[in-house]
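Suppose a colleague, Dr. K., hands you the sequence of a protein chain of 456 amino acids and asks what its three-dimensional shape might be. Before reaching for any lab equipment, you can write down a predicted structure in token form. Begin with the sequence itself:
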Amino acid sequence: MCDERLNEGGIFAIYARGTDVAKVTYFSLYALQHRGQTGAGIAVAGPDGIRCQKGLGTVGEVFTETDLNQLNGHMAIGHVQRGEGGVPGPEEAQPLVCRFYKGAIALEYNGNLINLSKLREDLFANGSIFHTYTDAELMVNLIARYSRSVTLEEALMKCMVDIKGVYAMTVMSEDKLIGVRDPYGNRPLCIGRIEGNWVLASESCTIGMLGGTFVRDVAPGEIVTIDEQGLHSVMIFPRKKSALCMFEYIYFARPDSVLDGINVMSARKAMGRELAWECPVEADLVIPVPDSGIGSALGYADALGISYNMGLIKNRYMDGSDVKTREMRRDLSVRLKLNPVTRLVEGKRVALVDDSLIKGTTSRMIARVVREKGAREVHFLTACPPVRYPCKYGVGTFRGDELTAAARTVEETRRFIGCDSLYYLSLEGIYRALGSESGFCAACFDGVYPVNGGEA
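The predicted structure, expressed as tokens, is then:
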């Protein structure tokens, strides 16, 4: 069972002499903001060592022009963070900067270690001190322990033997950047070039936004180093069966990103077409639940020849981390975020297409407000299978006690939501949309956990 540690986020790193790396990183984090809104940080390596600015909130809330002007150097790493229920405190925001006898390093991390507790106990027994319960802090302690007699890359190799779980991370010393992806490739990390300089990012959309060129994905189990001589790579594990989190394509990633060779928007439209083939409904209008339902709704409407329209208008000034949202009634929160267009839905048979259905409470409110605006029928379709199993790799929203599909049949869920019909895309349909039956983690759908069976 996953806990509520801060395990999801977006990472960026750049090595570029003669460039304002802090501002480049700042803008890159805007392109990754969808991956986390509860914390943000930038660390820069320069003549004065490593300096870091981080805090709670979105990128625009954390940084000022003055902050960025004080971050001078030739290398930078940046992080946006998502935590279930928010970030407990600024000390848990990333990047994490530490100093030990070989110098300073900064580390940013996206993932989840399933043997965290055992590793912490071992480090405690050997004199390590912890201020947080984050995977990032454990990683810097392991690196410090192994760096006594080997290089930073060799220390990371030893760490990767010890740790069990899924992760993508970048580590910055005072003279190099290192990117690491877990042996299963569960978390995304890619390489790009911007004006001749090397960058690492969680998603390729960041590289494109900065006017750069996508080069390739970091391979599962690969360590890449960027220094004065350029980019170097080493594979430290035999190639394992890849297991990229399927929810990257369904929900997490931006539509304009390419992950392991698959364009996210194309994948979502293909999921919608598969949904139309498996679950056609008689409807007058297809409406996406924005934003991640848009691609699937487009594919669904196109395959069935049904009219498509943005019948739910999203309030761009509300987000899931807003304190006022948590304090208000659930139904009012949904109405503030998504409001139906009455003239579009009135008297119509409406097919609502969403990326997924997890707890069901938001879906219930959406179906209710669409019906209240005059829809004659409301059909709810999700472009992925029922989520019946908890994520053991850090996706905190997939808690076993909150999954409506784990506790209810499809018919019971339909009645709970209050729609006229409810359909899920099959797992086989997802595989057809992605063009392969291998290379993905689908544990939340089928209960098959690829990394150590989900256990430490």
